[in-house]
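Notebook, bench 3.
Goal today: get a predicted structure for Retrovirus-related Pol polyprotein from transposon RE2 from Sesamum latifolium so we can plan the truncation constructs. The sequence was checked against the plasmid map this morning, with no discrepancies at the termini. Length recorded as 116 residues. Pasting the sequence as submitted so the record is complete.
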Amino acid sequence: MSDIDSDKWLKAMKSKMDSMGSNLVDPPKGVRPVGCKWVYKRKLGADGEVTAFKAKLVAKGYTQRPGVDFEETYSPVAMAKSIRILLAIVAWYDYEIWQMDVKTAFVEEEIFMDQL
């Protein structure tokens, strides 16, 4: 890695790998692991300054074959209408709402990725 902030990226990668380390298993016989790659993002604050370095390990889903490696796909995305309704309820009842950042999320499906 030749980026000027490589030490910060490596720290973000280590944090991600540490959170996944306890979930490593060997794939069953006949299962072909999916490849993976790192995706990097600088998180900016309101003033435009870098506030965090995010590293995400993602599966190379394009190597999968429909019907062989998976049956269906699903991407959980909240509809804008649902968010507006939630915010309206929060405002109406004078509730507090908090934003959170999930460090590691797991799907309810078995996915086997190659280790780096």
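The mean pLDDT is 80. The chain is about 25% helix and 15% strand.
Flagging this for group meeting.
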